TrEMBL record:
Species: Salpingoeca rosetta (strain ATCC 50818 / BSB-021)
Signal peptide start and end residues: none
UniProt domain Tc1-like transposase DDE: residue ranges: 303-431
GO molecular function, one term: nucleic acid binding
Sequence ranges of Polar residues compositional bias: 1-15
Comp. bias (Acidic residues): 484-510, 518-535
Protein name: Tc1-like transposase DDE domain-containing protein
Superkingdom: Eukaryota
Pfam families cross-referenced by the UniProt entry: DDE_3 (PF13358)
Region described as Disordered: spans on this chain: 1-23, 484-535
């Protein structure tokens, strides 16, 4: 039996599927047992990964044909038996063709909508535009680390340097002719621009808010484990061979949420009273034990699972009431892009609705409806309408109270000062940890850490984030100046076509700090990954 498993699972070196190899003692001629079929599926998946992932017209026709066959079988069975047989068309096509559920489902939707089968005239099954290199998350991190090393050494980096880095690391080939090199440089410029778009919008809005002398409210959620220690920095005797107590697992955790507010720029610093200074808003602090079953739901791996839209909306009411009681108006409320921060009103149409409900929703909103409209077309209209007119619940709540919500850009936790506050608070708790620390001790120390959090500490955290904000703003404004010069010289690249201009303007790269994992990103490495003075 061991020899048989080795022969089937290992596959062949000539690219032939392992299950078609001649096999002795087969129970049924021409059949595949479970082991052989699993081996075949692995082989097929590997072949598709090694070959082009482009979904061709023929491949899409196969998906549509299989679904059409089973849909016809349902009709035939209903005529014979008088009642239709239940079929899961997408699942059947997925199992027969070994394609993903999304691909099979989307192929039939496209066919239903257009009564034709086609693919986009570009790479990728989802119609991704052709690029000179794959814009993956791994590449973004690789570039970010390289830029960080150059910053530490004090090197100035421009787009041509990034092109050289991509060529030397195999992301792009080495170019010998000037035209190809110029085209590749434009592709790099477009890539760098795409990386900074969301960040630049946030930075300009924040700078505008500071110029308007508005107060900023920063909010966030976090947690701390029972056995949290910031770092293993204690002295020890290297000659001591006695066994130390075994490192304990993370254990239970406390989740907490709060908001901090910047100082009032309308009041001169010398005249500021306590209410005008930067500080934690204690009325907004909520600490609870994560992991206790609530409504039958146990602790999730990601601590965000302990929060939901209903809880956050109640907490948002507390924040707005606190600001109103303190007489604080027209603030910018900064929060991240967590799903429960952006929940829509309960009566917002959903893709899971039946066609009749979608027709009713379109009619109620004054959207055109036709008898020939498919469910997919109705949802497309509703989705566009929702994106243009429906605001998240907390955004509407804030605007009704005279405030504005701003979303932080991904990968820029250093622009969110409350992350630095969390690191300080958790550091205070973690440094008091020993092997006798109880979960009750952690709660008591956490309460003390928040109670002793001074306005000076909060102000320092905000000042650090503001300094980073100013630095990035100077960088993006310098990029604008370079673009203006390029336009004046007639060499500006609009990203729509590749001309043969060899005179390429050097563009400064927006130099990102090495990505720091905020405590919201992962449950896996939070215990060892935070500093007291930085996020």
């Amino acid at each position: 039996m061991a020899q048989r498993r080795s022969a089937t699972a290992a596959g062949s070196t000539d690219g032939t599927p392992p299950c078609v190899k001649k096999k002795e003692g087969r129970l049924y001629a021409g059949s595949l047992d479970n082991e052989e079929y699993d081996a075949f599926k692995k082989w097929l998946k590997k072949q598709r990964k090694e070959n082009s992932r482009t979904l061709t017209v023929d491949a899409k026709l196969d998906i549509v044909a299989v679904q059409a066959y089973f849909r016809h079988e349902k009709f035939v069975h209903a005529n014979k038996s008088g009642r239709p047989k239940q079929y899961r068309f997408t699942a059947l096509a997925k199992n027969v063709l070994q394609r993903s559920t999304d691909v099979c489902q989307q192929a039939w939707k496209d066919y239903e909508r257009a009564q034709a089968v086609s693919v986009a005239d570009n790479d990728g099954p989802r119609g991704t535009k052709t690029t000179k290199f794959k814009r993956t998350e791994a590449l973004r991190v690789k570039l970010q680390n390289w830029l960080y090393e150059r910053t530490v050494k004090g090197n100035r980096t421009v787009a041509k340097d990034v092109l050289g880095f991509f060529c030397s690391s195999g992301v792009l080939p080495m170019y010998s002719d000037p035209t190809s090199k110029a085209n590749a440089l434009r592709a790099v410029q477009r890539y760098l621009e795409s990386l900074g778009y969301e960040r630049d919008a946030y930075i300009t809005q924040m700078i505008k808010a500071l110029q308007q002398r508005r107060r900023i409210v920063y909010l966030n959620e976090s947690y701390i484990h029972h056995h949290y220690r910031p770092h293993d920095e204690s002295l020890y005797d290297p000659g001591d061979n006695r066994l130390l107590p075994k490192q304990k697992h993370k254990g239970r955790r406390f989740c907490f949420i709060a908001a901090i507010i910047s100082s009032d720029p309308a009041v001169p610093e010398a005249e500021r009273s306590e209410e005008h200074r930067a500080q934690l808003l204690p009325e907004t602090l909520d600490i609870f034990e994560g992991g206790k079953k609530q409504s039958g739901k146990a602790q999730t791996k990601d601590y965000h699972g302990m929060f939901d839209s209903a809880y956050f909306e109640r907490w948002m009411q507390t924040l707005l009431a606190t600001l109103d009681a303190r007489g604080i108006k027209n603030t910018i409320i900064v929060m991240d892009n967590a799903k429960y921060h952006k929940s829509l009103p309960a009566d917002t149409p959903k893709q899971s609705w039946k066609k009749a409900a979608m027709v009713e929703a379109c009619t109620a909103r004054g959207l055109p409806v036709s008898d020939t409209d498919t469910r997919a077309l109705l949802w497309a209209r509703l989705r566009e309408h929702i994106a243009q007119t429906v605001k998240p619940v907390v955004v509407q709540m804030a605007e009704d109270a005279g405030h504005e919500v701003l979303w932080t850009p991904p990968h820029y936790s250093d622009l969110q000062p409350i992350e630095i506050v969390w690191a300080n608070v958790k550091g205070d708790v973690g440094r008091q940890y020993n092997y006798d620390t109880t979960f009750k001790d952690v709660r008591q120390r956490l309460d003390e850490a928040f109670a002793t959090l001074t306005p000076k500490t909060v102000e320092g955290c905000i000042a650090k984030a503001d300094a980073r904000l100013d630095e990035l703003y100077r960088q993006i404004t310098s990029l604008d100046e370079v673009d203006e010069e390029a336009i004046d010289d007639g060499v500006f690249d609009d990203g729509q076509r590749d001309d043969d201009d060899e005179n390429m303007e050097e563009v400064d790269v927006v130099n990102e700090d090495k990505d720091k994992d905020s405590d919201e990103d992962s449950d896996e490495d939070d215990d060892e990954g935070e500093h007291e003075d930085e996020d």
